[in-house]
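Open question from group meeting: does this chain pack into something compact, or does most of it stay loose? Before anyone orders reagents, we agreed to write out a predicted structure and look at it together. Recording both the input and the output here so the notebook holds the full record.
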Amino acid sequence: MPAPITKPGAILLAVVQGAFWLLTGLWPFVHLPSFLWVTGPKKDIWLLYTVSVLITAIGGTLLAAGIRKQVTSEIKGLAIAGAAGLTGIDVYYALNDVIWDVYLLDAVAETVLLTLWLWAGTKDLGR
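Structure tokens returned:
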């Protein structure tokens, strides 16, 4: 089993990203009308729920790893890949008028998380 990364930066990032994703993933389940009001109408609610389940699951995993101080290189990779993927989707589809431009705000948040993971990896997250 991989040894956890014990640096405070990795632990904090896992907690912050995990909490952010857990909350945003749960939002459509808790109050769909407000989610749609902010993010725009959706044609396929099943797809929204599918993405929400995945974001919730990953967010919960990151949060648990951070709280338990068990942030491994695999957890770090999951956080980076997820943030990069969401950034790409947000930017591409917002700029092509498929989704509302509010998703560009999410792209900013994801880019901040991604940048912090990459920057901190050179400072205090590496082995």
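Observations to bring back to the group:
The chain has one domain: 8-120.
Residues 8-30 form the longest helix (23 residues).
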